[in-house]
Amino acid sequence: MKPRVSLQDPTLRNGNFSLRIDPVRSEDVGLYEAWVKYNTEVHSCHVELGVITVTLSPPNPVIENELLLMSCNSSHRASLVETCWFHNEHLGPTSRTFCSFSGALSILHPALSDAGSWRCQLQYSDKEIISATYNLQILGFDGPTNPVVYAAAGSAAN
């Protein structure tokens, strides 16, 4: 897993033997075990790492008005009950929420207003709730509403 994995060396002296994985990948899912020997004592701990992934079809950045499918999946083993997507939470009147029984969200004609923070929240039959945030980029034309631009002869026009 090198070079994505590191020990937090400065904190080892304080009893913190954390492992850092950056970036986390889907194949990193599983049970991790740590053993630390200090003098004659041996300490161990087990941590299970679950992963949630957000995928786009087509991949980011998305082109304005092209069909977009956003999917959200997790390594959690229970049955998926509901998926909710939140767009620009806490940003006032532009915030939106979509809920369904699958992990996917289709946007038929994505617009520049669809760009920004999207959070998918997965709720499972064992009451576990898992979420991930994704920053969606939309490529499009953000020009004047009137497509006619006037410029003086001899000057530059943008």
From TrEMBL:
GO terms for cellular component: external side of plasma membrane; membrane raft. GO terms for biological process: interleukin-15-mediated signaling pathway; positive regulation of ERK1 and ERK2 cascade; T cell activation. It comes from the Eukaryota. Residues 50-131 form the Ig-like domain. GO terms for molecular function: MHC class II protein binding; protein tyrosine kinase binding. This is LAG3 protein. It comes from Callaeas wilsoni (North Island kokako).
